[in-house]
């Protein structure tokens, strides 16, 4: 609604008000979703009300981010879509992590398996952000994915495997080291390919701009 009104009268910046209200939807979700009570709930996996409320908040923020990227009318302040998209990602990451931890506690009796479920989930998030950052040519998203992947690996070794025998811990160290090395090599190669494609794309534009007749000629 705010977006439609803003297109009729851009000077009132109703789209900015809509973006602020969309981010404000996070506040009641945080207030009504206590992590302690959420984790202790025995509802079936992926059925907790706070999780579905977070899905609604995330969808709302993503819709506003998409609309702001296409029809932002307050360009003098910069487009708000990165802030809205980041807020949606934070809500989705936090809610899904809590729900995965709660679901793992219902499905697995072993404490190590519960912790590992969260670490695996964080690792999947990290890989998804890296892939999405390359697909969207957004370096900050890739960096966040790398950091999250590293945090997941450290958590898996330091916390999740704290009670296992030393042999398994050493094997986990080696496996994670190989995995991180593979990610680093693949990241470097894909980054080089992306840079080459961007250079090839920018080269014709630069040559065409230089070949245009100047007004001073």
Number of strands: 0
* Overall mean pLDDT: 76
Distance between the termini: 52 Å
| Domain module tally | 2
Q: Globular, elongated, flat, extended or rod-shaped: what is the shape?
A: flat
Describe the oligomeric state of these chains in a short phrase.
Answer: single chain
Helical stretch count? 9
Radius of gyration: 23 Å
Helix content range of the residues, please? over 70%
**What kind of sheet is the major sheet?**
none
Compressed to H and E, one letter per element, the order equals: HHHHHHHHH
Strand content range: under 5%
Topology summary:
Blueprint: H1 2-8, H2 14-24, H3 26-32, H4 35-40, H5 49-71, H6 81-107, H7 111-135, H8 139-160, H9 166-211
Helix pairs in contact: 1-2, 2-5, 5-6, 6-7, 7-8
Give descriptors for this structure.
single chain; 217 residues; mainly alpha; 2 domains; 80% helix
Describe this structure in words.
- It is flat, with a radius of gyration of 23 Å.
- It is mainly alpha-helical and 217 residues long.
- The longest helix has 46 residues, at 166-211.
- The protein folds into two domains: 1-107; 112-201.
- The mean pLDDT is 76.
- The chain has helices spanning 2-8, 14-24, 26-32, 35-40, 49-71, 81-107, 111-135, 139-160, 166-211.
